[in-house]
C-alpha cells in the first residue's frame, strides 16, 4: 500500500473474494461509513481510487452487482477485480472515512471530495483511466477529467502515465488552471464515457441496493448497573472468540441506526480468559439509559471489529 495514503489515515477495511463467478466485498470495519474515500489495492499497488457519499457497503455492492445498462465504471471495475481474483491475486479495500471534524467557519469541509482529485492526479491509478476517441483520460468516480494523455497506445503498453513534456513557468501555470477548473477544459467537453460504453453515470437513486450484512455470530448480555451507568459491557466467554484483540478500535451500530460510532476493546484485567470489554461511554451511556437496568441486549457480530447492539424484544 502506498505510504502516502497510509500517512493521511487510509486503513485496510476488507477485501474482495471470489464466490463462484461473482465477487463479494468482505468487511472488517467501516462498512457503514458514509462520505468515504476508498482504494482498491493489489500487491501494495493502488489500482483505483473512488469517493462515495453512500455507505461503503452500498457502494461496493454496485461493483459486485452492476446493472446491465448502468454505469460502465461499475462494470469495468468488476471485470478487473474478477480477472485478478481468478488469477489467484488478492484485492484489498482501504478506506478513509470523513470524521466530520473539518470546518471552515461554520461550514463542514468534505474531506473525501476535497482529496479525491488530488490523490488520483498524484498516484495515477491504472483503473482510473478511460478511453475515448483514441485518447485516454484520468477521471474521478464521477468522470471529472483530471488529465488527458495524447498517446494512449504507449500508455497501455507501459501501464503507467506518460511523462509530460517539459513546460516553462507560464505553461505550468496555465496547465494548473486547466487541471483545477474542469468545467472549462476541452478534455471534459470532449469526454463522454468509456470507449466501449458511452452510457452516462447512473444517478445515485438508481444504484443497486447492497446485500444486508452477514453476521459471524451473536451473543447476549444484560444491562448490569455498571454497564447502564458507565456505557460499556463485557463480551464474556460467548463474545470472546468473535471479537478483536486488545486495544483495537471497533465500530458499533446501535438499534436501527445506519451510522456507527467507535469504541475500543479491552482484554486486560477483565477476568478469567481475558474476555473482551467493549467501551464507548459517551455514545453507549445515553443509549443504554433509555432502557431499564437488567434489560437483555443482543450483539450481532459482523466482523471482529464491527458489531450491532440492539435491545432484545420479547
UniProtKB/TrEMBL annotation:
InterPro entries in the record: EndoII-like_GIY-YIG, Host_DNA_Degrad_Endo
UniProt region (Disordered), positions on chain: 150-218
Composition skew (Basic and acidic residues), residue ranges: 179-191
Gene3D superfamilies associated with the record: 3.40.1440.40
Matching CDD domains: GIY-YIG_EndoII_Hpy188I_like
Protein name stated in the entry: GIY-YIG domain-containing protein
Amino acid at each position: 500500500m502506498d505510504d502516502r495514503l497510509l500517512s493521511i489515515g487510509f486503513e485496510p477495511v476488507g477485501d474482495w473474494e471470489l464466490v463462484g463467478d461473482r465477487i463479494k466485498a468482505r468487511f472488517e470495519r467501516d462498512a457503514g461509513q458514509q462520505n468515504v474515500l476508498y482504494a482498491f489495492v493489489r500487491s501494495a499497488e493502488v489500482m483505483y481510487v473512488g469517493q462515495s457519499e453512500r455507505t461503503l457497503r452500498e457502494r461496493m455492492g454496485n461493483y459486485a452487482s452492476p446493472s446491465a445498462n448502468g454505469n460502465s465504471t461499475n462494470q469495468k471495475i468488476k471485470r478487473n477485480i474478477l480477472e485478478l481474483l481468478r488469477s489467484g491475486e488478492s484485492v484489498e479495500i482501504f478506506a478513509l472515512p470523513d470524521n466530520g471534524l473539518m470546518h471552515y467557519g461554520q461550514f463542514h469541509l468534505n474531506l473525501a471530495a476535497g482529496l479525491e482529485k488530488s490523490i488520483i492526479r498524484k498516484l495515477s491509478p491504472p483503473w482510473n483511466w478511460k478511453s475515448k476517441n483514441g485518447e485516454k483520460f484520468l477521471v474521478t468516480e464521477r468522470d471529472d477529467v483530471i488529465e488527458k494523455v495524447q498517446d494512449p497506445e504507449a500508455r497501455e503498453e507501459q501501464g503507467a502515465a506518460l511523462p509530460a513534456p517539459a513546460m516553462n513557468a507560464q505553461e505550468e501555470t496555465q496547465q494548473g488552471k486547466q487541471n483545477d477548473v474542469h468545467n472549462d477544459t476541452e478534455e471534459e467537453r470532449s469526454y463522454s464515457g468509456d470507449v466501449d460504453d458511452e452510457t452516462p453515470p447512473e444517478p445515485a437513486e438508481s444504484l443497486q441496493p447492497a446485500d444486508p450484512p452477514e453476521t459471524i455470530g451473536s451473543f447476549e448480555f444484560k444491562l448490569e448497573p455498571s454497564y447502564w451507568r458507565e456505557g460499556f459491557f463485557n463480551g464474556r466467554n460467548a463474545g470472546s472468540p468473535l471479537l478483536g484483540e486488545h486495544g483495537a478500535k471497533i465500530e458499533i451500530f446501535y438499534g436501527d441506526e445506519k451510522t456507527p460510532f467507535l469504541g475500543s476493546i479491552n482484554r486486560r484485567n477483565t477476568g478469567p480468559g481475558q474476555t473482551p470489554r467493549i467501551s464507548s461511554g459517551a455514545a453507549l451511556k445515553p443509549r443504554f439509559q433509555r432502557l431499564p437496568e437488567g434489560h437483555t441486549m443482543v450483539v450481532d457480530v459482523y466482523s471482529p471489529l464491527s458489531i450491532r447492539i440492539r435491545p432484545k424484544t420479547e
